[in-house]
Every structure is written in structure tokens, then in C-alpha cells.
UniProtKB/TrEMBL annotation:
Keywords: Glycosyltransferase, Transferase. InterPro entries: Nucleoside_phosphorylase_d (IPR000845), Nucleoside_phosphorylase_sf (IPR035994), Pur_Nuc_Pase_Ino/Guo-sp (IPR011270), Purine_phosphorylase (IPR011268). It is an enzyme of class 2 (transferase). Belongs to the PNP/MTAP phosphorylase family. Residues 140-391 form the Nucleoside phosphorylase domain. It holds the Pfam family PNP_UDP_1. This is Purine nucleoside phosphorylase. GO terms for cellular component: cytoplasm. It comes from Artemia franciscana. Residues 71-94 are annotated as: Disordered. The lineage of its organism: Eukaryota, Metazoa, Ecdysozoa, Arthropoda, Crustacea. Pathway: Purine metabolism; purine nucleoside salvage. NCBIfam families: PNPH (TIGR01700), PNPH-PUNA-XAPA (TIGR01697), PRK08202.1 (NF006054). It comes from the Eukaryota.
Length: 418
């Protein structure tokens, strides 16, 4: 009988062993190693694909997960983005790696950290995906603010696409934002409408808040109607009034959180875009006229909108500063990134605030804003807004038909004002 020798680590001796036992040992060792590798692989896969997903195992969410999470083919970054084996804690804390940081909000997990903006081809792929879902080619887009999703229900013969089913798209986490895109006809005009937007306070970088605007641009949208709910600082504004935005102050933008931070792709627009005339003057004039024609003369104003990063409503001292020092008329937590990106790529913008509450100026006041009231105030104005938006769409559509062709120099002069 031949012997092999085996090391005994307990007493540091070498024990003899029969040859057949030795081979059995080798096979058992090999199988154990394979098993461990297999379990390790499965575990890594589970923790990676869980990164952006809803914890439920519903199949539509899994689809969203694949697109939003590790399957994004982002040039050379894809390896880094997906190779981390970090997982999410169950206690709602933020976890991070060097590429992406995620937070848990309710049952949804959203990114809150640095992530590189999608490139032109990736955004084009989203636009093509959406175009493949409809036969309509829309020149007009609408973004619905808090409590204003009803505007999308005006569309006839519509196709609805949920945000979680759109490649690379964020998901809506705020009450009053439905989280879907509808494409259809409004008074026979093809229109694409976002029923729900994204805000920086949800954890999204500003480029991601404005991502849908680039998607709409590559879908062929030329004019954008943007709505929001906002608190008014003006004593002559009432809840339910409409404020047509003529200019803005962006707190995040001034603090370096512009949606255009990062490398610039000239196919979208220039490195240093001007925001002069960002809110199209002609559209503002149409809106004032239409407001009067539909009996809203006393409820329609023009003003300057300020974007607060949120989610905290302004303190009374901040409200006094916004009014008295900065001459702001209304304040909200959105819209500006969308406007900046829209203007960057030459879209024409019309934006309005539905005044959902009056800002509280008195530090000792009993009143304070809350989101339920904001949503309710917007919803209560839906029939007036329906007529207002329908009329604006018809007017804008008419104008677009008389635009020169895109390869004509005067086209860009009209769009960019130069
Ligand atoms: O701007 P929209 O999305 O309409 O919503 C506004 O309402 C919310 C606060 O009540 C904030 O999100 C604010 O920005």
C-alpha cells in the first residue's frame, strides 16, 4: 500500500495517508472551492442588480432596474459603475462607492451622488425608444408640475409609457407626480406630456432632473410648456392665480449645480449659453391675452420665479429676503434646470406657476405651507388650466408651422435670438 503525507496544523506534524484517501480529499476540496465561487458569484450579482431597484420583485420594476442600474453601457465608465459589490442597508441610510450613491425614500431607492450625465447616443436611444411607441411626431411638449398631471388627461388617442419602463429614466417619488409620459392629440395637435417631473431634493443631480428635456428635444419637440406649483410672495396674488414666468433666479445654479455642469456636447448646444430671453416674449404675450379672453384677467400675472433647492419650504426670513432683496415674485423647487437645458438646445420655452400658497412672511405666524395643500390648490384649478393650456398649444402650434426650415439661418436666429 502506498502512502501520501498530510500536514496536521494542530500539532505541526505530518501524518501518513493512503493514496485513495488522498484523491478523495483532493476531489472534495475541488468541489468545495467550486461551490464557494458559485455562491460568491450569485451574491455579487444579487447585490449589484439591487442597486437601483424597488425591493419588490415585480417584473416591471426589474425591467426598470436593468436599464437604470448596471446595464447602462456608458463608454469606459461602465466597468466602474457596475463592478462595486456594495449593497444597500435596510435601515434607509445612504451608501456609496466612487461612482454612485443611493438613498432609500419610502420603498424607492434613488441616486443622490455623482454620476456622469448620459451622453448624446444614450439620450438618442431613449428618444428612439419612445418614438417607437407612437405614430405621433410632436413639436410641443408639456411638463406637468405638482398636482397638475391632469393636463395630460386632455390628450386623446394617447399612449402612456411609465417612467420605470423607459431606458435610463429616473422615477417620480413625489406625491402629485404620476410618473408617466403620455403622447397623443390635444385639439388635434400631437403633444407629448410628462405627467411628473424630477427634483434635486429627490436625490437626482440637476442634469438628471432635466434629462427628459433632452429626450424631448431629440424626439423633435421644438416648444416646451412648463408648469409648476409655487408659493407667491406678492400681496396681490391669490391662491389659484397663474404667474407667467418672465425670468428666474436659480439658487442651485448660482451655487454650481447647473444641469449643464460637465463636458459639453455641441450637438446639444454651446458651452456658455445665454439665458437672456429664456422665457419667450411672444408666448408670454399670447398667455396674457388668452388669460384675459378666458376670463382670468384678474388672476393672471407675470413675474420672476426663484428656484429653492428644497425640500424645505423657505423660512419667513428667507421669504422676506426673496421679496425685498431679490425682487422675486414666486418660489418653487423645480423648473429652472428644465428651462436651462431647453434653451441650451434651442427649444422655445413658455413656463407658468400655479400659485398654490402664499409664502409666510411673519416669523410668528400660525400659518405654514404643506404639500397636501399645494397639490389640492393646483387640482382645484384644473378646468381653467385645461382651457388655458389648450389655447396656448393651438397658438404655439400655429406659430411653429410658420417657422423657417431648420437648415435656414433665420430658424436659429428665431430660436436662440441671435
Ligand atoms: O415645482 P413642482 O414640481 O410643481 O412642485 C412644487 O411643489 C413641491 C412642494 O410642495 C415642490 O416640488 C415644488 O417644486
Amino acid at each position: 500500500m502506498s502512502y501520501r503525507y498530510r500536514h496536521n496544523p494542530n500539532n505541526n506534524t505530518v501524518l501518513p495517508m493512503t493514496e485513495d484517501k488522498f484523491f478523495i480529499g483532493v476531489i472534495v476540496g475541488f468541489l468545495a472551492k467550486c461551490g464557494a465561487d458559485f455562491i460568491d458569484r450569485i451574491w455579487t450579482k444579487m447585490t449589484k442588480s439591487d442597486r437601483f431597484c424597488d425591493s419588490s420583485s415585480d417584473s416591471s420594476n426589474n425591467k426598470g432596474c436593468n436599464w437604470n442600474g448596471c446595464e447602462r453601457s456608458h463608454s469606459t465608465d461602465s466597468e466602474t459603475s457596475c463592478s462595486s459589490s456594495e449593497s444597500l442597508s435596510s435601515n434607509g441610510e445612504v451608501h456609496g462607492n466612487d461612482r454612485e450613491i443611493v438613498a432609500i425614500q419610502g420603498d424607492k431607492k434613488t441616486p443622490v451622488g455623482e454620476e456622469s450625465p448620459l451622453n448624446y447616443d444614450e439620450i438618442k436611444a431613449i428618444a428612439d425608444f419612445l418614438l417607437s411607441k407612437t405614430m405621433y411626431r410632436c413639436q410641443i411638449g408639456i411638463i406637468c408640475g405638482s398636482g397638475l398631471s391632469e393636463l395630460g388627461n386632455l390628450l386623446e388617442n394617447r399612449t402612456t409609457i411609465h417612467y420605470e419602463d423607459i431606458p435610463h429614466f429616473p422615477v417620480s417619488t413625489v406625491v402629485g407626480h404620476k410618473g408617466q409620459m403620455v403622447i397623443g392629440l390635444l385639439k388635434n395637435v400631437p403633444v407629448v406630456c410628462m405627467q411628473g417631473r424630477f427634483h434635486p431634493y429627490e436625490g437626482y443631480p440637476t442634469w438628471k432632473c432635466a434629462l427628459p428635456v433632452r429626450v424631448l428635444h431629440l424626439m423633435g419637440v421644438k416648444s416646451l410648456i412648463i408648469s409648476n406649483a409655487a408659493g407667491s410672495l406678492m400681496s396681490d396674488h391669490r391662491v389659484g392665480d397663474i404667474m407667467i414666468i418672465k425670468d428666474h433666479i436659480s439658487m442651485p445654479g448660482l451655487a454650481g449645480r447647473s444641469p449643464l455642469v460637465g463636458s459639453n456636447d455641441n450637438r446639444f448646444g454651446t458651452r456658455f449659453p445665454s439665458m437672456q430671453g429664456a422665457y419667450n416674449k411672444k408666448y408670454r404675450e399670447y398667455a396674457l391675452k388668452i388669460g384675459e379672453e378666458i376670463g382670468l384677467k384678474d388672476n393672471i400675472h407675470e413675474g420672476v420665479y426663484c428656484m429653492n433647492g428644497g425640500p424645505v419650504y423657505e423660512t419667513p426670513a428667507e421669504c422676506r429676503m426673496l421679496l425685498n432683496t431679490l425682487n422675486i415674485n414666486a418660489v418653487g423647487m423645480s423648473t429652472v434646470p428644465e428651462v436651462v437645458v431647453a434653451r441650451h438646445c434651442g427649444m422655445l420655452v413658455f413656463a407658468f406657476s400655479l400659485i398654490s400658497n402664499k409664502c409666510v412672511m411673519d416669523t410668528d405666524s400660525e400659518n405654514s405651507p404643506n404639500h397636501a395643500e399645494v397639490v389640492a390648490a393646483c387640482a382645484s384649478r384644473k378646468s381653467d388650466l385645461k382651457v388655458f393650456v389648450e389655447r396656448m398649444v393651438l397658438q404655439i402650434y400655429n406659430d411653429l408651422q410658420s417657422l423657417p426650415l431648420e437648415n435656414d439661418k433665420s430658424y436659429w436666429k428665431l430660436l436662440l435670438g441671435k
